[in-house]
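Propose amino acids for all 257 sites.
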């Protein structure tokens, strides 16, 4: 059995707390001893109050401290853990092991998924990239990750950062494109849900085609007349720039199919 203290109560922390809670009913491989958050209200209805503290001085001794706070707070939160020579891991895609205060041993458990508190998620399908500074700690992080997911892999910090940049393109930027598309639809009294089958097919298609082969549209066809019409339609300068840049990127990456 591995005992854990989770630090944080945001999107990732809440999903971890719920998932460990569910899994503890099936086996006692992982026990969440306590959660530290500066805002206990955030965990109302998710965890009993006696398992939550907002004072770092009350953090109990455990095998592993799992920090799921904003990237820029990992350093501060890690240094507030009142123990030394413990395994302390964070969940960030872009932050290095050096964010963890050197009084403790460092590791990473990076779940490659987009988490929102309000949306349930099945952790068992989420790829988890893990890292630690010695073999024994890698085994411990692996044990924790294996309880959460069937897809666990060891990666180093450079690979994890590359993965995070790629994830920003395939998730965050794509989601922003949905947002722009939604605004354009709504400005013209078109329900955004009309786009749903197109969105689903676009994501589905790349399970069998690589993204370069799957590309369609005016940019890859070098259809300059349509491109000019679209640019004329857009009134927002940022959206015009995005349209132009992505068109250029598609045209420089792919040959006409
Ligand atoms: N969300 C994702 O899709 C995702 C995916 C993979 C990895 N991650 C990584 O997971 C980590 C957490 O991300 P998240 O999306 O869960 O963030 P989030 O929802 O914005 O939550 C951030 C948490 O950090 C706490 N916090 C911020 N500054 C703090 C400080 N100085 N002291 C103590 N607590 C502090 C916040 O507390 P308050 O509520 O009191 O502000 C909140 O509990 C990040 O490293 C992120 O890169 C996120």
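Proposal:
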């Amino acid at each position: 059995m591995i005992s854990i203290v989770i630090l944080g109560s945001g999107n990732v922390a809440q999903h971890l707390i719920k998932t460990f809670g569910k899994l503890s009913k099936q086996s006692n491989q992982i026990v969440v001893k306590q959660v530290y958050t500066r805002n206990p209200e955030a965990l109302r209805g998710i965890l009993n109050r006696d398992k939550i503290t907002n004072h770092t001085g009350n953090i109990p001794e455990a095998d592993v401290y799992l920090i799921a706070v904003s990237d820029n707070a990992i350093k501060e939160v890690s240094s507030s853990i009142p123990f030394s020579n413990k395994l302390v891991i964070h969940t960030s895609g872009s932050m290095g092991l050096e964010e963890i205060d050197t009084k403790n041993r460092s590791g990473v458990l990076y779940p490659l998924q987009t988490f929102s508190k309000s949306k349930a998620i099945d952790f068992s399908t989420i790829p988890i990239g893990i890292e630690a500074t010695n073999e024994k700690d890698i085994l411990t992080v692996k044990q924790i990750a294996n309880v959460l997911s069937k897809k666990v892999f060891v990666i180093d910090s450079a690979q994890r950062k590359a993965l995070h940049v790629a994830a920003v393109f395939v998730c965050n930027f794509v989601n922003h494109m949905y947002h722009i598309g939604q605004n354009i639809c709504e400005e013209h009294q078109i329900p955004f849900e009309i786009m749903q089958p197109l969105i689903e097919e676009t994501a589905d298609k790349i399970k069998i085609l690589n993204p370069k082969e799957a590309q369609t549209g005016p940019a890859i066809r070098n259809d300059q007349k349509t491109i000019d019409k679209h640019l004329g339609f857009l009134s927002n300068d940022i959206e015009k720039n995005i349209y132009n840049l992505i068109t250029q990127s598609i045209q420089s990456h792919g040959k006409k199919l």
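Residues 8-13, 37-39, 42, 68-71, 73, 76-77, 90-93, 111, 114-115 surround NAP (CB under 6 Å). Strands lie at 2-7, 30-36, 52-53, 64-67, 87-90, 105-111, 128-132, 152-154.
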